[in-house]
Amino acid sequence: MEITESTPLDIIIFGGAGDLAWRKLLPALYMAHLHRSLGERHRIIGLGRHEWTRRQYVEFVDRMSRRCIEPADMQPLQWQDFLRRLDYVRLDATQPQGFVGLKEACQANSVKLFYLATAPQLFTVTCEHLAGAGLLDAQSRVVLEKPLGHDLASARAINEAVARHFEERQIYRIDHYLGKETVQNLMVLRFGNAIYEPMWRAPYIRSVQITVAETVGVGTRAGFYDGTGAMRDMVQNHLLQLLCIVAMEPPISLDADDVRDEKLKVLRSLRKLGEADLRQHTVRGQYTAGTTDGQSVPGYQQEEGVPAGSRTETFVALRAHIDNARWAGVPIFLRTGKRMPKRHSEILVEFSQPPFSIFADQSGAAQPNRLLITLQPDESIKLQIMAKEPGSGMRMRPVHLNLDLQSAFTERRAEAYERLLIDVVRGRLTHFMRRDELEAAWKWADPILQGWQNQGDAPKPYTAGTWGPAAASALVARENALWAEAQ
């Protein structure tokens, strides 16, 4: 069913008063409402355990979500119209009674979009109660927020439970990184430009780095994070999805399954790391007290809610290999961490040096061409090339061809959650994980996690405000490489 301007649409948020809802989802839905992307008959129903009336919920959203919207976008009349579309239903997902009230709150014959912004252990019972209350039909859609499982077995259990009530075409496993403009631009960069595709392979590419760095610590998420760690929280989903887009073969079309088929092949081609490989190919770290953004911050084990002696990693660096013809022999470095010197996400593609240089005797050392794709906080694409310095002689130095996406396009750029929520409304699955993708990612990650547990080594300490343990630099140095910030 195609949703038109006149189609009644109910967007139902489980965890409607949670941090994700008021910080990200509701501001994103307001922006979609402001720019008329949701149709005329959309409503948003927040669900939660608070004993709130609708008025109290609206006041909560007005107070909390308003501050997450840019002042230039806060148009009072449109904001009030958005608030009028809100409703609230008190509901305990483990109890069937509240689902009767939810059904009564929905519009007649509406398309229902269920966003499960809750703990994954509630996904199964939530879907069962939705079905039991007669809230599901062929047009319903469900959005599953990460983490989707703790390991392969739990991910499969979630997938099987949800599949009992929803077809795969109705399931949207969300990874907000796939909603970023620059991530989606990677497809165009790779497959829409003839100068790149012939060289986007071994032996022309020497190495690839993918970094997602955060300046924040564990904050108020200690209860969740200490049982999860950086590998499950970031690598198994965000970084592997970025890797898939960088490394995939050209799909035969932009159809969702054609794109996801190629991403799946990448995941299946990732070389498995056995326990004997871990000390050579992986680094785990945990931040200690230090300074971030000019302020003193505690170490991970001093954070409120973190148990004494915790061995949860807040930093991971990995050297991965994709065993296929395109990427044979190319090391791929994945890195993520908390309490790093700056917040940024980037992809660095380093090309090989020419096989022979006529400039070997000239002053000024030649450096390899590098393509730096910055995803956040500022979106840009930079290509480093060698150029001659002005003057006599042939002294070289690297210069950058810089595409600033912010200035290249003056149109408004939707944030990731807004873009992905619109995709759900319009039935576009391309930027969401398919079941077999999720399970293939866990098949690769599980042996690493199990190996770390078996070895029993504590994460290597690193001072907050630095780029992680020294062992992470040694990891890339063994391939005669440097992390991007050191180049």
From TrEMBL:
<keyword id="KW-0313">Glucose metabolism</keyword>
<keyword id="KW-0521">NADP</keyword>
<feature type="binding site">
    <location>
        <position position="146"/>
    </location>
    <ligand>
        <name>NADP(+)</name>
    </ligand>
</feature>
<feature type="binding site">
    <location>
        <position position="180"/>
    </location>
    <ligand>
        <name>substrate</name>
    </ligand>
</feature>
<comment type="pathway">
    <text>Carbohydrate degradation; pentose phosphate pathway; D-ribulose 5-phosphate from D-glucose 6-phosphate (oxidative stage): step 1/3.</text>
</comment>
<feature type="binding site">
    <location>
        <position position="233"/>
    </location>
    <ligand>
        <name>substrate</name>
    </ligand>
</feature>
<protein>
    <recommendedName>
        <fullName>Glucose-6-phosphate 1-dehydrogenase</fullName>
        <ecNumber>1.1.1.49</ecNumber>
    </recommendedName>
</protein>
<feature type="domain" description="Glucose-6-phosphate dehydrogenase NAD-binding">
    <location>
        <begin position="12"/>
        <end position="185"/>
    </location>
</feature>
<keyword id="KW-0119">Carbohydrate metabolism</keyword>
<dbReference type="InterPro" id="IPR019796">
    <property type="entry name" value="G6P_DH_AS"/>
</dbReference>
<dbReference type="InterPro" id="IPR022675">
    <property type="entry name" value="G6P_DH_C"/>
</dbReference>
<feature type="binding site">
    <location>
        <position position="214"/>
    </location>
    <ligand>
        <name>substrate</name>
    </ligand>
</feature>
<feature type="binding site">
    <location>
        <position position="338"/>
    </location>
    <ligand>
        <name>substrate</name>
    </ligand>
</feature>
<dbReference type="Pfam" id="PF02781">
    <property type="entry name" value="G6PD_C"/>
</dbReference>
<keyword id="KW-0560">Oxidoreductase</keyword>
<dbReference type="InterPro" id="IPR022674">
    <property type="entry name" value="G6P_DH_NAD-bd"/>
</dbReference>
<feature type="binding site">
    <location>
        <position position="49"/>
    </location>
    <ligand>
        <name>NADP(+)</name>
    </ligand>
</feature>
<dbReference type="Pfam" id="PF00479">
    <property type="entry name" value="G6PD_N"/>
</dbReference>
<dbReference type="InterPro" id="IPR001282">
    <property type="entry name" value="G6P_DH"/>
</dbReference>
<comment type="function">
    <text>Catalyzes the oxidation of glucose 6-phosphate to 6-phosphogluconolactone.</text>
</comment>
<feature type="active site" description="Proton acceptor">
    <location>
        <position position="238"/>
    </location>
</feature>
<feature type="binding site">
    <location>
        <position position="176"/>
    </location>
    <ligand>
        <name>substrate</name>
    </ligand>
</feature>
<dbReference type="InterPro" id="IPR036291">
    <property type="entry name" value="NAD(P)-bd_dom_sf"/>
</dbReference>
<comment type="similarity">
    <text>Belongs to the glucose-6-phosphate dehydrogenase family.</text>
</comment>
<feature type="domain" description="Glucose-6-phosphate dehydrogenase C-terminal">
    <location>
        <begin position="187"/>
        <end position="483"/>
    </location>
</feature>
